Amino acid sequence: MKATIITIGDEILIGQIVDTNSVSIAKHLNAAGIVVREKISIGDDRTQIIETAERALAGSEVTVITGGLGPTKDDITKKTLAEMFRSDMRYDERVAGHVEKMLAERGIEFNELNRSQAMVPACCTVLFNAHGTAPGMWFERDGHVVVSLPGVPFEMEHLMEDEVMPRLKTRFALRQIVHRTMITAGLPESMLAKRIEAWENALPPYLKLAYLPNPGAVRLRLSAYEVEGESVAREIENRFEALRRIIPHNIIGFETATMQEVVHKILTERSLTLATAESCTGGSIAARFTAMPGASAYFLCGVVSYSNESKAELLGVDPADIARYGAVSEQVARQMAEGVRRTAGADYGMATTGIAGPSGGSAEKPVGTVWIAVATPRETVAILKQCGTDRGQIIDRASAFAIGLLRDCLNGN
Amino acid sequence: MKATIITIGDEILIGQIVDTNSVSIAKHLNAAGIVVREKISIGDDRTQIIETAERALAGSEVTVITGGLGPTKDDITKKTLAEMFRSDMRYDERVAGHVEKMLAERGIEFNELNRSQAMVPACCTVLFNAHGTAPGMWFERDGHVVVSLPGVPFEMEHLMEDEVMPRLKTRFALRQIVHRTMITAGLPESMLAKRIEAWENALPPYLKLAYLPNPGAVRLRLSAYEVEGESVAREIENRFEALRRIIPHNIIGFETATMQEVVHKILTERSLTLATAESCTGGSIAARFTAMPGASAYFLCGVVSYSNESKAELLGVDPADIARYGAVSEQVARQMAEGVRRTAGADYGMATTGIAGPSGGSAEKPVGTVWIAVATPRETVAILKQCGTDRGQIIDRASAFAIGLLRDCLNGN
User: Fold this and answer.
1) Does one domain contain both B76 and B127?
2) Residue A40: in which H helix or E strand, if any?
3) Do A10 and A43 fall into the same domain?
4) Among residues 276-305 of chain B, which lie with CB inside 8 Å of chain A?
5) Domain shared by A16 and A161, yes or no
6) Cα(A219)–Cα(A189) distance, rounded to whole angstroms?
7) Is the domain of A51 the same as that of A165?
8) Of A254, A284, A319, which one is at a domain's C-terminal end?
9) Model ipTM?
10) What is the dihedral sign for C-alpha B188, B189, B194, B200?
11) Lowest-confidence pick of A88-97, A294-303, B163-172, B253-262
12) CATH, residue A75
C-alpha cells in the first residue's frame, strides 16, 4: 500500500515556513503500514495542483493533500479539487452551523468569507473539523483515495487521527512497517560503520539499515516494509541487543532519546536533585529539563545570571574573581555551579559561562568560548569548550556539552 | 527561471526528520530571483532518484538535490547520478587530501569508506566542501543545471552560499523576486480580510497577497515574481504604508518579527532593564530574550523557581501565601514578579506560575492554568490565562502571553 503526500502553499516554496505537516502525516501513515512513496510541495496554482494530484492518484492508492482551504482568495485547493473530480458544490448545513458557533464563541462575526467555508464538492465525504472552520474532504476514484485537509497543523493533526486513519484502516487491508532507531554517541559515522561492519553485513535482506548523523550523535535505523510486524520487531530487538555487546558505551537510547532524557531518568530513579546557573546559555538548559514531564521531582531551580551583579548576589560568586579572571573563566564557572548547588540545596549544580556573540569576543577568548562546570556532592568538574561561531549554535552546543558533562559525573566517569 | 528541489532520504518519508534543507535552499534561490516550482522528497531508491531527477531536469532550468552522499552503504545518490549522466568515476586528489586532513584533526582513521568519498563522477564539476567530507557536484546537460549537495545542513548551507549561488548568478541572467511579509496580531484571519478588503481589491495584478495564520498572529505576504526588484519593492512598501493607516494597532512588524523582538527594541531604546521569574515556563522566556544578540544590555537575570523553597528564598515570596493560595495563584505570581524586580534591581520584572502538566491539575486549576504578572516601576499587573492541554504548547503560549503583557505595560496600555 503506497501513499503520496502533497503540501500546497507558496509559503513552502519560498522557504517562509518549515513543512511539519508532511512529517506528521508520514508518521501516521507509516504507523498504519502505508509506505510513503513521495512528498511533494507545490504552490497555490490550479494547473499544478491538478497535474500533481492526478500523478499521485495514478502512482499510489492513497494521496493526502494539505493546505489551501482557508477563507481567503489565495486559497484555491477546494474549488480546484471539485474541478478535477468534475463535481458541483453544495452548502453543508452542519459545517455552516459549526463555523457560526465557533466564531460566535470567539466574538467574531459570521461573514460571507466564513459562509464560503461551508461550500463543499458534492461528490466528497466531509471530514468534520471540530477544531477549525475548514472541513476536510475525502474523495474516491477507481479504488484510490484522495484526502484534502486544512494546513493549520493542529486541525490537520486531529483530522488525521480522528477521521482519516480510522477510515483508511477500514477501507484497506494493511500490512505493517517496522522502524526502530538506536541513538549512539561518541563515534563518528565512518568509525561507527567500521566498528559494526560484521554486524551490518550479517543483517537479513529485509532489514534496511540507515545511518543518520546528528551533531554529537549518530542514529542507526533498522526498517522493514510491509511485513508481519510482531516477529520482525522481535528480530530487530535481537539485532540491537547484539549491537549492545559491540558498542556498549556508545548507546544513548532509542528513537528520539536525548542526553537530557538520560539525565532525567538517572536523577528521577536515584532521587537526586539539580539546580542550574546559566550565563551564555540563557535559560536553555533549564528549559530543556523543564520541558520534560516529571522534571519538578528533581529540578529545584535555575538562575540565569546574565549580569555580574546577579552572579555575585544570587550565586555568591566572588566579585574580585570576576574582576581578576573575567566572567568567562574556570573560576567563575566553578563558583556558579557550587553557588547554585548551595543556594538551592541540590545534590548537583551545573553552570555555563561563555561568549555567545556576535560581539564580546577577544583574541584570547573568542566568540564561542564557554566554560562549563558541574558541582557534585564530591567535587566540582570544569571543562572549556569551543562551541562555534553562531549565537544559536553556541547556545545549543554549550547546553548539550553541559548536559553531557552532568551525565558523565552521574555515571562516575 | 525555474528550479526544483529534491531531498533524498528514507528518514524524510517516514517522518523521522523535518526537512529544513529545502527551506534554506528555497530561500537562497528566491533571493536570487529563481522561482522554486516544486519540492520533492523521495527515498534512497535508484529508480526513483533517476525518474525524479529526469523529470525535474525537463521541467526546470535548475535542480538542487540534497542527501545520500554519506560514506555508508545506504547512501546511493552519487553513483546513481553518475549512472544517469553516463559518467565514469574518478579519484579526486584534492578531496582525498581534505578528507584525510579533516579526520586527522579529529583523531579519526582514514579508512576505505572515507576514501570512497573522494570518488566523483568524471563529468561533474566538484564543489569543494570545506566543512565536511562529502563533496558537492555540479552537472550540466542541454543548458540545464543539476547540483547535488550533502544532506548535513551546515555543510549544505555553506556550499549553497559559497559555491552554488555565485555559479548560478554567473551562469544565468536572473530577474528578481520580491517578498515582503507584515506580521499582524489581534485580528483573526476572516475579520482581518474583511477589514482590509478594499485595500486588497485595489492591489495591482502582479502583486500576490497571501494570508498566513499563526497562533496569535496573521502574516500578510505580498509577492511579485521575476520583476524589476527596486521599483516593485518601493510599490510594496507604499501598499503596506497604506495598510498601516487601516489597522494601526495590529502591526507587530515585518518578516519574522516576534513579540520578543518588539520588547527587545523598546527596552534597548529606552535603556530599561528586565528580570524574569519563571515557574511553569521553566526558562523559556529567559531563553527567548537571551537568544537575541544584545540582550545582555537589558536582561539582568532570570530565576527558574520550580520548587516552593526557591520561590521563597530567591524571590522572597511569602511561604504562608504559597500555603494559603497555592503556588499557582495571582498572589504568588505578583510576588514573584515584584521579587525578581527587587532582587535584580531591574526596571521591569515578569513572572509565570502555572500547571504545565501532564499531572498536577485539579478541577479548580486544570492543566494549562497559568498566572502571569508584570511588575513595573508604577504597579504590578497580573492576568490569568488558559494555555491549552499539551506541555510544550502550554510553555509556548504562556511565554508568548507573558511577553505580550510586558509589551502592553511598556506601551502604557
Assistant:
1) yes
2) strand A35-42
3) yes
4) 276, 278, 281-287, 289-291, 293, 295-296, 299-305
5) yes
6) 9
7) yes
8) A254
9) 0.72
10) positive
11) B253-262
12) 3.40.980.10
Whether A42 and B38 lie within 8 Å, measured CB to CB: yes
Residue type (1 letter), B154: F
Calculate mean pLDDT across residues B225-234.
88
Please, what is the average pLDDT of chain A?
92
Same domain, B6 and B150: yes
The percent of residues in chain A predicted with pLDDT above 70, rounded, is: 99
> A108: which chain B residues are within 8 Å (Cβ-Cβ)?
188, 190-191
The CATH code of the domain that includes A216 is: 3.30.70.2860
Condensed to tens digits (0 to 9), the pLDDT of residues B146-159 reads 999 999 888 999 99
- Let me know if B386 is exposed, middle or buried by CB neighbors in 10 A (0-12, 13-18, 19+): middle
The CATH code of the domain that includes A319 is 3.90.950.20
Question: What mean pLDDT comes out for the span B338-360?
Answer: 95
Residue pair B149/B136 in contact (Cβ under 8 Å)? The answer is yes
User: Chain B closest CA to A412's CA: distance in Å?
Assistant: 25
pLDDT of amino acid A106: 66
On the question of pLDDT at A258 being above 90, the answer is: no
Q: Could you give the CA distance from residue B115 to residue B132 in angstroms, rounded to a whole number?
A: 13
Set of chain A residues whose Cβ sits within 8 Å of the Cβ of B190? 71-72, 103, 108, 111, 113-114, 133
B296–A16 C-beta distance less than 8 A: no
Does A41 lie at the interface with B, CB-CB under 8 angstroms?
A: yes
Are B296 and B204 members of one domain?
no
Counting the structural domains of chain A, the total is 3
Residue A38 β-bridge partners = A4
Domain containing B347 equals 259-410
Q: Pick the last residue of a domain from A113, A139, A171.
A: A171
A130 and A87 assigned to the same domain = yes
Spell out the residues 6+ positions from residue B89 whose beta carbon is closer than 8 angstroms to its own. B79, B82, B119, B120, B121, B122
Query: How does residue A216 score in pLDDT terms, banded at 50, 70 and 90?
Result: low
pLDDT exceeds 70 at position A73: yes
pLDDT level of residue A47 (50, 70, 90 thresholds) = very high
Preferred mutation among A64, A72, A207 to probe B, highest tally of B CBs within 10 A: A72
